[in-house]
Amino acid sequence: MVYNTKPADSWNTCLNTTLEQEDKEIYDLIEQEKYRQFSGLELIASENFTSQAVMEANGSCLTNKYSEGLPGARYYGGNEYIDEVENICRQRALKAFNLNPEEWGVNVQPYSGSTANFAAFTALIQPHDRIMGLDLPSGGHLTHGYQTSKKKISSSSIYFESMPYQVDNATGVIDYDRLEQNAALFRPKLVICGASAYAREWDYPRFRKIADQHGAYLMCDMAHISGLVAAQEASNPFEYCDIVTTTTHKTLRGPRAGIIFFRKKNDIESRVNQAVFPSCQGGPHNNTIAGIAVALKQAGSPEFKQYAKQVRANASKLAETLTNYGYKIVTNGTDNHLVLWDLRPQKLTGSKLEKLCDLCHITLNKNAVHGDVSAVTPGGVRIGASALTSRSFKEDDFVKVGEFLHRAVQIALAAQEKAGSKLIKDFVVALEGNDDLKALHKEVQEFAKSFPMPGFDIETIKTEF
Ligand SMILES: *Cc1c(COP(=O)(O)O)cnc(C)c1O
Ligand SMILES: *[C@@H]1O[C@H](CO)[C@@H](O)[C@H](O)[C@H]1NC(C)=O
Ligand SMILES: *[C@@H]1O[C@H](CO)[C@@H](O)[C@H](O)[C@H]1NC(C)=O
Ligand SMILES: *[C@@H]1O[C@H](CO)[C@@H](O)[C@H](O)[C@H]1NC(C)=O
Ligand SMILES: *[C@@H]1O[C@H](CO)[C@@H](O)[C@H](O)[C@H]1NC(C)=O
Ligand SMILES: *[C@@H]1O[C@H](CO)[C@@H](O)[C@H](O)[C@H]1NC(C)=O
Ligand SMILES: CC(=O)N[C@H]1CO[C@H](CO)[C@@H](O)[C@@H]1O
């Protein structure tokens, strides 16, 4: 067979040039982001570094394919390999969480965690049915029914009637008694557990009991902790819930996407599959599903279990280090990968510490702490150990991270005093030319660069722009 090696039509040559040749502007920005990830301390609790294998699968030719429907029942032809990929992905998803395929099924097509949640609601309940999820200022996620007194923010509060439950103001732990009392008045159809900024274990049996009192479904959104659940480093929501959703890019360390697990009872299976497609989505992202399959294979390995153990060890070491400096950690510690740090005793807002950390290349995010009056200037920050643990950080390294953060707070407090106002723009001005900040920035970068970086070839990383 002689292949046609003739050059493509001139208007098609762009299809075979590299990203660098074709679009230097985007290429350079990607290279700069690569260097940023490599040379800084990544502490955002919902982020992680995925592996080279996941990036290869995700960036593969599978992105070209349309495959609406489920394996074996597609609306388009040419899906023989795609079907295999999706079937392998589903099998691995059940295996990663030790689920019996007779009892549990899974849909791996949701584009992300938010769409997985909306599809789950679409499957389980009717418009205006009542839902109860953890309030956002208590650490819950937007998609669990968030609204303010002025506005329904999330579509989950626009289409359903939402009454949140909260953490106890004094302890920072979920107030289960009040949840039970309020549920008795509100009579929810769906109770949601899971959060984005909650450092403690979940009392799933108690949630089940409360849901059963009202014949409600119980859904767990384990987005933040699914890697820990897979590694059996967190308690198991599957024993108690009807539906479990997750993102795949947080502790699970896969590509950016979502998954829905459902119990195969009543007609939940067909309702979930219908809700994903055609109710909420069109064609799945095959490249992403291949990436999820790779991540799930990794999540079943003994190395991943070690990783998850180390993530928890590192997060608790960081909590301990900050406590020893005299800071207040919400719930006085952590059971998982994240630490919620209450800065109100220091009279410093989370926004200011986030800004200062950004300037010295430590990436974390401001976060509401329960009892905050203003949502615009939250009183704390959220710090996660997952990403840096993927870079081989151990407990001692997190002691160093805690020291950096302590120095950052000292610099922030001095700048706040110098600024003489509460405004963040005055704060930034007060930091200009600050030598302590420059010194900290330099040390942070040197420290970060001394660790390996998953998925990147450090030898070829560009350092000058
Ligand atoms: C991150 C997160 C989501 C949303 O996931 P996206 O992929 O960002 O849409 C949903 N629920 C929880 C608890 C999360 O932490
Ligand atoms: C791939 O895309 C096609 C078309 O959208 C879809 O039918 C199929 O389910 C997808 N397969 C995977 C593995 O995502
Ligand atoms: C982060 O990714 C690593 C693999 O790179 C994985 O082992 C770990 O569980 C992930 N952790 C979190 C908390 O996402
Ligand atoms: C993978 O592909 C999806 C689109 O299908 C994209 O949104 C995502 O950012 C890609 N990369 C990773 C690592 O998830
Ligand atoms: C917080 O935890 C520390 C140990 O890490 C303990 O010594 C202290 O008593 C705890 N404080 C509270 C208020 O529980
Ligand atoms: C919650 O605690 C904060 C301080 O931790 C306090 O300012 C606030 O008034 C408390 N709110 C309630 C409702 O008790
Ligand atoms: C859960 C866990 O692994 N905790 C560990 C956290 O780190 C501290 C300090 O290194 C250890 O003592 C804990 O066992």
Written description of the protein model:
Its cofactor is pyridoxal 5'-phosphate. Residues 19-404 form the Serine hydroxymethyltransferase-like domain. It catalyses: (6R)-5,10-methylene-5,6,7,8-tetrahydrofolate + glycine + H2O = (6S)-5,6,7,8-tetrahydrofolate + L-serine. Keywords: One-carbon metabolism, Pyridoxal phosphate, Transferase. It is globular and about 65 Å long. Residues 62-66 have low confidence and may be disordered. The chain is α/β, with parallel strands linked by helices. It starts with 18 loop residues before the first helix and ends in a 16-residue tail after the last helix. Strand 2 (69-70) and strand 3 form a beta hairpin. It is built from 17 helices and 15 strands. It has helices spanning 19-22, 24-39, 52-58, 80-96, 113-124, 155-158, 176-186, 204-213, 226-230, 268-280, 286-299, 302-324, 350-359, 386-390, 395-419, 424-431, 435-449; strands spanning 41-42, 69-70, 73-74, 104-107, 130-132, 161-162, 190-193, 217-221, 243-247, 258-263, 328-329, 338-342, 362-363, 365-367, 380-384. The strands form 4 sheets. Strands 4-10-9-8-7-5-6 form a 7-stranded mixed beta sheet, sandwiched between helices. A 4-stranded antiparallel beta sheet has the order 11-12-15-14. Strands 1-13 form a two-stranded parallel sheet. One 2-acetamido-2-deoxy-beta-D-glucopyranose binds next to helix 12 and helix 14. One 2-acetamido-2-deoxy-beta-D-glucopyranose binds next to helix 12.
